[in-house]
Amino acid sequence: PPSLEEMVSCPPVVTIMGHVDHGKTSLLDALRKSNIVDKEFGGITQHIGAFSVSLASGHQITFLDTPGHAAFSSMRARGAVVTDIVVLVVAADDGIMPQTIESIQHARKAGVPIVVAINKIDVPNADISYKGLMEQGVTLEDYGGDTQWVPISAKNGTNLQELQEKIVTLAEVLDIKCDPNGMVEGYILESKQDHARGSLATVLVKRGTLKNGKIIVAGTTYAKVKGMQNERGEAVKKVSPAHPVEVLGWKEVPSAGDEVLEASTERIAKDVVDFRLSQLQSKKQEEDAEIIKVKQMEDREVYNEKRKQMKHLGKRIFRKSYVRVKEGIIGKDMESPNLSVVIKGDVSGSIDAILNTLATYDSQKCRLDIMDFDVGNITEADISLAQDFNGAVLGFNVTASKEVLKKAEEVGVSVKMNNVIYKLFDDVIEMLNERLPLIEEEEIVGEAEVLKPFSVAVNKSKQVNVGGCVCNKGTLRKDLDYRLERNGEVLFEGKLQSLKHHKEEVNSISAGTECGIILDDEFFEYNTGDVIKCIKTKRIEQQIDWMPSFLQE
Fold first, then answer.
1. Which contiguous run of DSSP H or E holds residue 299?
2. Maximum pairwise Cα distance, the chain
3. What is the pLDDT of residue 122?
4. What is the residue-wise DSSP string for 154-211?
5. Of the candidates 292, 218, 222, 294, which has an alpha carbon nearest to the alpha carbon of residue 257?
6. Are 527 and 469 a contacting pair, CB within 8 Å?
7. Is the pTM of this model over 0.70?
């Protein structure tokens, strides 16, 4: 750690948090005087962005924009790790919502103070001094607490100057300092693969001064900084602490949330990366070994159970049964519904959010397998992988060339590309539903009671049993299936051989009409009081019993 003499004052890093559509992006838009809302698909911020703004007072503030969407809770947690102050946006017409509570918890866990911005004070039914925060342990100054708050309208720009002053005042009280001279430290806020410029990552510098030519390590990759751009797309030569910058020169795309550390030489950076990769490989081998061990135990239990059955049943032959499903839905040699997906995203943060949501999948109706995931546009290799497993490709904020889409169509691989997270998971649920087998559903369309059993001569040597009945409910149709029940026990299931009314063969009998019934078992002996049900069987599609939490709100 640096000595106190080396520390200097630096701008506060502020994170805007809150529930979906409470106005976080609109607030940032008003603070930095640039239009972001129109560029965002669906009006929801989908990636961590970082912006430094200079105030009229001469002070600077760096804002992190952690997404407010439920699917991006892990990214919001990263935002709280690197931030000095949290601005909690609460809509005056909506109040405390699930992601509001989640944001408060993230801030508390990181030990970060909160400034509350009550937004949308210009709308009807606005509760300007929202007391619901007290239930979550956030007590505002006006109610005896120590949490500053400001009623604002991001849309109209009301009280934004006051909000900025409260942030600056709190930063002065916190006495935020940093070391501009030490080895560079920081965090990856976002990363992506650019077709023209290669691997890119947004770095928030926390210590030292980042310059062109320096070597930095993040996760399992490193960069010799070839160039840097600020949030306005301007080239910069050095970046001081508490400022964000986009770095060019990474060997691979780092992951959002990775810690950034400077290495004195490229050789050291390579050694560090190699060591970390070997550690990951060792961990994976241990996990794989444990999985193999469990599988071997399961297989041994199945084998022992089969041996017991064979010993008990002697020479009886077993026939393997298979689940019957719609043709073409299940892949080769699959015995149960299965959906395999390849996931491609524009940035690692998006992929993390998608994977975290898919990790909540717990349905037993259809197995969901993730075959691969990566940053970048959809390629022919992705299509080939999906084809091998009779799967599909999911793309988020990425594209696919005409050649790739043509190949997908030729080999029958479904490609789903979306810019809105809601629609991506709508597609996942739709594909899961398509993989489920049809199920049979019975509808009782008619019911009859046997009043008197009797027999009739078909010829001189043959007589058949007949149930003399009355139709009590609905309609009896000759072409449908029938079930005969006696004292609640099913004695027959099948078709009719004959349905007669006054010695005439008919196709249907309506309620209140007497009839003679011969089941497709001429020698079945009817009893008075037997119930005969006419059944219509329908094959209907199933629905998957899983849905992401944010689609349930």
1. helix 266-313
2. 120
3. 84
4. TTTTBTHHHHHHHHHHHHHHHT-EE-SSSS-EEEEEEEEEETTTEEEEEEEEEES-EE
5. 218
6. no
7. no
